[in-house]
Amino acid sequence: MKNNLLSLLLFICCAMATQLISQRVWAQTASASMTVEQLNAIKAIKIANLDKDTYFKSGGFILDRYEERPAYVFAYSDGITRKIYLYKVFSAEDTKELGLLAIYKNEKTGAVKPFVIPGASADRKAWDAYIDDLKYVGEKEPGLMSTLTFVLSREMAGLLSGGAGKADEGSGKKKEEYNFCFAADALVTLADGSSKAIQDIAVNDVVMGYEAKTKTLAPTHVTRIDVHTGSFALAGVWVAPVQEITADTRTTLTAPTLLEATANHPVLTATGRKALGDIKAGEVVYRYDATTQGVVAYKVLRLAASVRSVGKVYNLVTGSGAYLVGETVVLDK
Questions:
Q1: Where are the domains of the chain?
Q2: Which of 150-164, 185-199, 233-247 has the lowest mean pLDDT?
Q3: Which of 177, 182, 229, 225 is CA-nearest to residue 324?
Q4: pLDDT tens-digit profile of 257-315?
Q5: Which of 132, 135, 259, 283 has the most CB atoms lying inside 10 A of its own CB?
Q6: What's the 3-state SS for the chain?
Q7: In the CATH scheme, what is the code of domain 179-331?
Q8: Nearest one of 95, 107, 328 to 210, comparing CA atoms
């Protein structure tokens, strides 16, 4: 009787903490109403490595580790270590926040139990499904209710004190930061050296890739294409060959070449991976050279935080992790 009463109290506390945290978190962000179909789809997502996979896309959703936190770890007197991982869930199409994914893991048995916590404006059926999961699974997995209740209650306490929940605001993180993309007319270099607009690229197309280990160009397959619709500002950098800039005998120079993308899209620089918007004048990027069939160094001459705005953007995922846009080496996000 005492155990049943304790379980009921934990269940009530967990449900109340969930409702409060959803109202606080999703009131501060652009959010969308979660349906029960979306809840079930999110719950079915398999995460290969919970400790390393902190940001990824799957099945039309973006999962981003909540406040970039590591797992909550609980060492109980029964000798079993239990963990709770939290992810924010966004719609990949418009990057609106849908809810929170809490994943419970029993380190002894390896059992993993996902709980999709809807946003405050979610469909009632989605909330019913979450409560059903919470009660049914919580009764069958000792330690689950207490760990989940603690985590949600602690996050709620942080929100009420003005701590957690403001990390996005303090870091300047916006929903647009989940889109790493190019305009529809951005030219992708194909394996034969010709080019095609990124909007016309299809999965399994062979494009020119870049192998970081060997620092060479090689054909690679497109494994996925991300498309986002909305309003997106494109940043731009103008580059010119390093050799031309440093040579003092040149009488004519090649006109600077413009590369534009969302400010957060990563490109390859002489100092490694860097977001386009973080590149400074004088830094070096790499572009395709048809004569040598390799890459040559180009120096950034100037940059602009906003070149133009577009209504649709595209991103490729490739086998090599890098491809060429405007003949410039860019990296998978």
A1: 2-175, 179-331
A2: 150-164
A3: 182
A4: 999 999 889 999 999 889 898 999 999 999 999 888 889 999 999 999 889 999 899 99
A5: 259
A6: CHHHHHHHHHHHHHHHHHHHHHHHHHHCCCECCCCHHHHHHHHCCCCCCCCCCCEEEECCEEEEEHHHCCCEEEECCCCCEEEEEEEEEEECCCCCEEEEEEEEEECCCCCEEEEEEECCCCCHHHHHHHHHHHHHHHHHCCCHHHHHHHHHHHHHHHHHCCCCCCHHHHHCCCHHHHCCCEECCCEEEECCCCEEEHHHCCCCCEEEEEECCCCEEEEEEEEEEEEEEEEEEEEEEEEEEHHHHHCCCCCCCCCCEEEEECCCCEEEECCEEEEHHHCCCCCEEEEEECCCCEEEEEEEEEEEEEEEEEEEEEEEEECCCEEEECCEEEECC
A7: 2.170.16.10
A8: 328
Contacts of 303 (CB under 8 A, 6+ apart): 235, 236, 237, 238, 279, 280, 281
> How many CB atoms sit inside 10 A of residue 154's CB?
14
In one letter, which amino acid is 164? A
Give the DSSP per-residue string, 54-66. Answer: -EEEETTEEEEEG
Q: Strands 322-325, 328-331: parallel, antiparallel or unpaired by DSSP?
A: antiparallel
pLDDT at 245: 53
Q: Whole-structure pTM over 0.85, yes or no?
A: no
